[in-house]
Protein 1
Amino acid sequence: MSNSDREAYDMKTVPLRDLSNALSKEEGIMIGEEKGKFEVARSMLADGLPAETIRKYTGLDESSILH
């Protein structure tokens, strides 16, 4: 898992509103986008789509998708 993927994964457990004072608008947008990718990947996995298809559409690496 890349550092940015791991950081995004860790951030999804912390409410974004708690980070708003410490982050710039751009950082908040980036974190939100990464969080969205993980949410989409989770839904795609639940629907039975293969990891390769999920990787193609989310840009996440396969190890991030499967963990």
Protein 2
Amino acid sequence: MLDDFFSRALIAGIGVALIAGPLGCFIVWRRLAYFGDTLSHAALLGVALALLMEINVTLAVFVVCVCVSMVLLVLQKRATLSADALLGLLAHSSLAVGLVALAFMTWVRVDLMGFLFGDILAVTPTDIAIIWSGGIGVLIILAMIWRPLFAATVNVELAQAEGMKPERANIIFMLLMAAVIAISMKIVGVLLITALLIIPAAAARRFATGPEQMAMLAAIVGVVAVFGGLFGSLEWDTPAGPSIVVAALGVFIVSVLPMPAILKKKQHQNTRKTQQSRGLE
């Protein structure tokens, strides 16, 4: 019989995995890993502001991540620096400002390791409600913008020509990213959120025959990583958040091993069927 705290951790981890998988696919397709890092680093600044202003941490992290996203959009249009330079500037600046702000707040006792690496075993029923309600909202919105967002990922000019408004889809995607990071911060921490977004999607990529299937497989891989990481943490007394990421890494390593010939043939047949069905649409 599992303890209540472990059951809550499983429920919360599964919720985060189901959200992170589909969003992580777009991060992989668009090569936006550094953008995820930037928002996760900015989350610590949100934590500092929440403690200073005595407001909800999840809300503060979401607001800060949204502000950093908007600042990035403005700087990309006005600054002469490249996108990766801007991301590096914002990521490390926000992280440093957050750490300095926390150091000045001597009257507040801060579990910095918990914020950096997560504390999934300490989630409460309220946290679970936030994760699942927020996650369902994120997935619904992602489904609504899936077509224009994917079209913009493949070819921005073509998406604009077809009137899909890719810029609006990109802004909504940034808001969804901010929401996911705010929701999942307590699970794996600000330093490991990007790993939970990227690794399951990267592991699913080899076995998927289409974008929708890759999104579903990424969510499944994330769930497997949550189970493996939490039970491994229980067995070997390791940190829960990093253990989840290590479990996801294990799945990824298995995914890059040479594929048996029969599976390779089956995947090729599925890919051909998918292409033929799309050609008939």
